[in-house]
Amino acid sequence: MVPLWWNIVLGVALFVIGAGGVLLRRNILVVLMSLELLLNSVNINFIAFGHYYADSRGQIFAIFVIAITAAEVAVALGILVALVRNTSTLRADDVTLLKG
User: What pLDDT, on a 0 to 100 scale, did the predictor assign at position 97?
Assistant: First the structure.
């Protein structure tokens, strides 16, 4: 049996790594992967607390987050493909397409 605090520490570590990737990196794909780390760290905590309290709501929330994340990735990758075709760059600083 894995103690609850191990899962919390793992979730916090993944959240810190993901937040660092979102805040420090310039490549849009790396930022997208870091967002996935953030959401997966939240899923780990949902499932850990759901298991600890013998409640299935944590698993249900995690499934909803996974479904929303899959839709977000599909839309984001479609936007990135269109962006690369128009500007041929993935650096967030170089993208000025929406500026007026």
Answer: 64
